[in-house]
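Example 3.
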Amino acid sequence: MVQDAGRPGHMHEGVPPGGALVPELLARANAAARNAPGAAGIESFGALSLEAREDTLVAFDDGTARPLSAGASLTIACEGARVRYVAVRGGIGVPELLGGRGTLLVASLGGHEGRALRRGDVLRAGDAPGVDAAMPAAPDLAAPVRVVPGPDHRRFPDEALDLLLSSSFVVDARSDRVGVRLAGPALPRLGSDSGASSPMVRGAIQVPPSGMAVVLGPDHPTTGGYPVLATVIARDFGSLAARPPGARVRFVTQP
Amino acid sequence: MTLEPFGDSAWRVPLATCPDPRALLDALRSIPHVVDAVVAEEHALVAFDATCPPSREDVDAAVGRALGPVTRALGAEHTVPVRYDGPDLEEVARETRMTVHEVVVLHAESTYVVATVGFLPGFAYLRGLDARLVLPRRSTPRARVPALAVGIAGPYAGIYPFASPGGWHLLGTAVGFTPFDARTGATLALGDRVRFVPVPP
């Protein structure tokens, strides 16, 4: 589906921040296409075949680019990666809605007709002028993920944070843009979830009654009722979200 | 004022009372370097770029002003026509020991106020539900509630802007109302007032 740098400034309308699941990888594909880091590109969770209608330059999150002449095609597979990004010179030219061009599935908003791409869809390249920027680093998928504890300390026993920081978790296959689900030890909680919904952020580690943590992703509901044990710092979210199902995750507090 | 760190890119502010949530939201959104602000009933949130946070003093001052004595401006008023054809009408009537007609009259008689916008784009938690209609959420949520379903849960009424899973009791369907528009955003804003008007099936 088409994704860009997101739709900041609309959370008070219930619109989540959005943006690429792994912003660093979209920025790498864009840098290779000489686009701005947050230009709209294609976020792909499976195999993707593209055929050029006109001569264009196509770029990938490994930092490479290649010209694709009219009629030529290419296929990109995920090959063990969680997600891959493809950029074209000038960005994907879908309309900007509420400050972004990305797809928000729950609201059928943005991207290409508000939905994931299907076979036969035709996308236009935008006409943004080329920019030269340094190639951003790819996220380190083995690094511990840094968190800030809280903010719902009082809804957990003390040992919950210790357990989060001392355990190894595994990315669950049911993860999506709404949340990264983690398999691991059940995290204990205090009390029930009867209070009013509170504002949420990307990276919040929510603990539902099952004790199985969910790290909220870019398309998270803007409010929620489950307590948040700790929150992944902004620059480490991509490292977590880029891990494929089955990959290991350890958390550390931000030094 | 307590600013609770919520990751490295947001602060959460506990709200004991908030006489004018809309004034607080507008004040928070106008602070330099605040990218996003949300005001719910128990907490407010300001989100920002971790490398460029707003000043804590600005946030403190905005919260202090909004929690002090205020002249409360009335929000916009919306009239929402409702066809009372919801699948849970009879169950709600049974559980509240009323007739379906009484449930409809009570639901349509109140004036509601938008207390929080969240959950889905354009979804408003509406306060003002008659106490006789307060019921816990359904024990088993539906996998799919249709767009424009009008429901109640706990002390709230609401309108689903999009089809979604949901645990609310469904009383009817909003007619000729657009909760969320791709170009203009959410129709209902914090502090707005809402009235439901029954229309024939």
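DSSP finds three helices and 17 strands in chain A. Chain A has two domains: 2-107, 145-253.
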